[in-house]
Amino acid sequence: MSRARVCLTVDFDGVSSWIHSFDEADSPTNLSRGLFGVDVGAPRLLDLFDEHGVETTWFVPGHTIDSFPEAVDEVWTAGHDIQHHGWSHTRPGTYPDAAAERDDIERGIESIESLTGRAPSGYRSPSWDFSANTLSLLEEFDFEWDSSQMGREFRPYRLRTGWQAPADAPYDRGSETDLVEVPVSWQRDDFPAFAFNRERGYANETEIFETWESQFEWMYRNVDDGVYVLTMHPQIMGYGHRLERLNALVESMAAHSDVEFTTVDDVATTG
């Protein structure tokens, strides 16, 4: 049995995040950042994963599948798992009603089925956002797990329904559902760390990678059968200097003989 499991995950947003989340459909420069991820970043990540012989999980909006089918097919053909990330990269909390969110989820399922021949078992919400309707919609469409929330650090848990958060009364956790949550963290996501921000400027990239490694090492020492989820975006991680650092991070993790690289679906279904 492995001491720890590592899930390398990729949000293959393409241009959809700029169109649907950031309202940048008329910005050729920002759209080109997404195109870099499709044309350059994704192939580079696939080469790195192939070099290490690891299977990874790619959360792909249907918009990316429909816009760049050959690029997404390369991910699937290389043996990586493809799971749901909306059709559009629209934050669930911004939908006007449940029907609009349902239509987007259903359309995303159809795009994945057209590529892979099977329905997705897992979901990651755009921008890690849920609406009041998201959980019930995931149950309606028979999803088995989610990877968008942050109620634990390195352990899967069950999502809850019927919770209440009134401002003038105690918080009510609600009751557990059958949906497994494989938690994420903004602390292990390349987009907030590295995406250029005019107000912040550039991040200290060496420090970020060192933090990711120290988080893994803490988990390895302190959490039996811990699950470490790293979230990457081809348009962010796909630059040469970052790939070198990512390669070193993967090598450091793989140096532990009892660490297993696996998919989020495997974690969710095997416990």
Number of helices, where a helix is a run of at least 4 consecutive DSSP H or I residues: 11
CATH topology: TIM Barrel
**Number of beta strands:** 9
Q: In percent, how helical is the residue content? A: 40-55%
Q: Kindly report how far apart the N and C termini lie.
A: 12 Å
The average pLDDT score comes to 96
Return the CATH class.
Alpha Beta
Low-confidence stretches: none
Count of all domains: 1
Helices and strands, in N-to-C order?
EHHEHHEHEHEEEHHEHHEH
Structural class: alpha/beta
Strand content: 15-25%
Shape: globular
Rg computed from alpha carbons, rounded to a whole number of angstroms: 18 Å
CATH superfamily: Glycoside hydrolase/deacetylase
CATH architecture: Alpha-Beta Barrel
Reported for the largest beta sheet, the result is: 5 strands, parallel
Domain NodB homology: 16-271
Pfam families: Polysacc_deac_1
InterPro entries: Glyco_hydro/deAcase_b/a-brl (IPR011330), NODB_dom (IPR002509), PgdA-like (IPR037950)
Protein name: Polysaccharide deacetylase
